[in-house]
Design a protein that fits this description.
The protein is built from four helices and no strands. It is an all-alpha fold.
């Protein structure tokens, strides 16, 4: 009976720890660093999508410009994925792979957002 109680306490403690958000400023474990990198990328991707929609709306009256934007964005996604895949490649199979891949995507996504923001400012 004591074993089951001990096991229940361990499982509850582990699930409580997992439910808490890591401190991304002071992340110490690879798992926390991976979670934080994923959050950073989600933020960057959401901002890129917001700006992309604004640019698309701005260009909407010009069908050719809109098509060029769509083509450029699709090609940029391929570039981002290939570039970051190459950057993360040395970490394939390791616990850092996801973090390196996602951190690369975040950086390129932030840069792309800045580029598209420039279109809005013209």
């Amino acid at each position: 009976m004591l074993r089951y109680l001990t096991l229940a306490i361990i499982v509850f403690s582990a699930s409580e720890a997992a439910a808490q958000s890591p401190d991304c400023v002071n992340a110490m474990t690879q798992a926390d660093m991976n979670i934080c990198a994923d959050r950073d990328y989600a933020r960057a991707d959401a901002e890129l999508n917001r700006i992309y929609k604004q640019v698309r709306e701005t260009l909407k009256p010009d069908a050719k410009a809109t098509q060029l934007l769509i083509t450029a964005q699709r090609q940029w996604i391929g570039f981002r994925d290939a570039t970051c895949g190459l950057e993360a490649y040395p970490n394939t199979g390791g616990s850092m792979y996801g973090m390196v891949l996602t951190t690369c995507k975040t950086g390129l996504t932030d840069a792309r957002t800045k580029d598209l923001t420039g279109i809005l400012e013209r």
